Amino acid sequence: MDHLSTAVFTAGIMFLVLFSMSVAVALIITVLRKALGRGKGAMPGPKS
Amino acid sequence: MSFDPSQFFPGIASFFSVDPLYALVRLALIGVGAFMVWTGYKRITEPLIMIPMGIGMLFVNTAIFFINPLPPLLPGMGNPHLDPLVGSNYTDPVGSAVQTNVALSMFWLQPIYTFTFLNGLIACLVFFGIGAITDLDFLIARPFTSMILAAFAELGTVVTFPLAIWAGLTPGQAASVAMVGGADGPMVLFTSLSLAKEIFVPITVVAYLYLSVLYLFQGRLNELTIPARLRATYMDPMQLPKVSSQEKFLFAVIVGSVLSLLFPVASPLFAAFFLGNAIKESGVERFKKLADEVVLSVSTLFLGFILGVLLTPNTVLDPRVFLILVLGITALVLSSLGGSLGGILAYYFTKGKVNPLLGPAGVSCVPTTAKIAQMNAQKLNKKNYIVLFCMGPNVAGVITTAILSAAYMTLVPVLFGA
To answer: Are B55 and B127 within one domain?
Structure first.
């Protein structure tokens, strides 16, 4: 593979790493909150 | 005895003893430095960075003259502040160390440059301070919304990498310039020091330059990409879920450790940020004041000032600087567009509960992009205070940028060879 193809391949991996890690961090927070008996706050919603 | 006026005013004389292009660029840098100081003073750009950086540029470019230093330092055009190339023209470590030692005793800013820039300490100190002032409420209350929006706002950080390779940069340089899309100055500095030490100065300066003028263009970009009807979405700050200090403290300790385990190369950044954050949440006032009022202020001041001092014609005349300028703004604009896209998707996915302006707030220039989103929202509805919600993706952006920085530092040497 030349450098450009490797770069495009790397960008693909980066997206994968980025989104999977983001979900993983969010999951850790959710589990942590559940363990502490929280996480039932209302979703901030639209008013008027 | 002969009298030569140029010996009394070597700074002025040096304008006439060098290549005209060098002299012109030097004059231009003096002008740009003065302009930066003025715009910072007038609050048109970010004063915390622009004033010290502009002053640094002014004082270094007015003080360039022919230096004949102690051996083994080499004679040539230089300045009395610091020599960024010291040690780099030696291949053997002993020669390099001797040269560095001489420079340390000659130039007043050399110790700060050598001991805080070249090892990334300054980036970690800034990060430590940022951690100590960062509020994690919305990120912890709504982790998925915050993290996913922040991931969308990294579009430029990823897409610019192959673009930069295509434009002719090496993989390390391409990854470093792509990090400008993460809009996080310390992270750009840290990554470029690791992957592209030879051009870390122009890349970091360009990053800080763009971050300082971000609020001149990002608001307009938000208005162009997100329809007014969506931007007007009201979010009630009273409904912001409460998050206890204990949760935030545990978050800092646990998430920081996990990220450090997954990406050891970026562990110094994670450690600095989450240490600051843990101190904030622990309520130890003495440490909190130290981190916020002392460490962050001192490190930001020297970061801006030294970056300014590094901006000499030698740096600017590098042909890669123009490319870095173009790719840097491309990365930042793409990230902002990615954030808008994520925000619009979140709006429809939550059936109109999330204001799409939370998306571009995920570009992690804390807290500038959150403030810009707030201004955009308030233009349409004076009572709409979304800034607290914006801080979720904004802070999550720091984490996603650190993840990408770590991934680049790990993957680039593996996939492209060291």
So the answer is: no
Decide if pLDDT at A43 tops 60: no
* Contact across the interface for B158 and A15, Cβ inside 8 Å: yes
**Nearest-CB residue to B251 (from A13, A23, A29):** A29
The structural domains of chain A, with segments of one domain joined by +, span: 1-33
Q: Is residue B188 part of a domain?
A: yes
C-alpha B231/C-alpha B221 separation (Å) is 13
- 3-class SS letters over B26-76: HHHHHHHHHHHHHHHHCCCCCHHHHHHHHHHHHHHHHCCEEECCCCCCCCE
Q: Please indicate, yes or no, whether residues B42 and B134 belong to a single structural domain of this protein.
A: no
How confident is residue A44, by pLDDT bands cut at 50, 70 and 90? very low
Q: Are residues B42 and B165 in the same domain?
A: no
- Identify the domain containing residue B52 by its residue range: 8-67
DSSP B26: H
Reported pTM: 0.87
Are residue B59 and residue B178 in the same domain, yes or no?
Answer: no
User: Residues B144, B293: contact at Cβ < 8 Å?
Assistant: no
B45 and B156 inside one domain: no
pLDDT class of B89 with cuts at 50, 70, 90? low
Q: Who among A8, A41, A48 is closest to B241 (CB)?
A: A41
One domain, residues B62 and B177: no
User: CB-CB: which of A10, A41, A48 is closest to B415?
Assistant: A10
Which chain A residues in 2-41 lie under 8 Å from chain B, judged by CB atoms? 3-4, 6-11, 13-15, 17-19, 21-30, 32-33, 36, 38, 41
Residue range B356-407, pLDDT digits in tens: 999 999 998 888 899 999 999 999 988 899 998 999 999 999 999 999 999 9
What pLDDT shows up at residue B74? 72
| Domains in chain B, number | 2
pLDDT at B44 over 50: yes
Q: What whole-number distance in Å separates Cα of residue A43 and Cα of residue B228?
A: 23
Are B268 and B124 spatial neighbours (Cβ–Cβ below 8 Å)? yes
Res. B161: pLDDT tops 70? yes
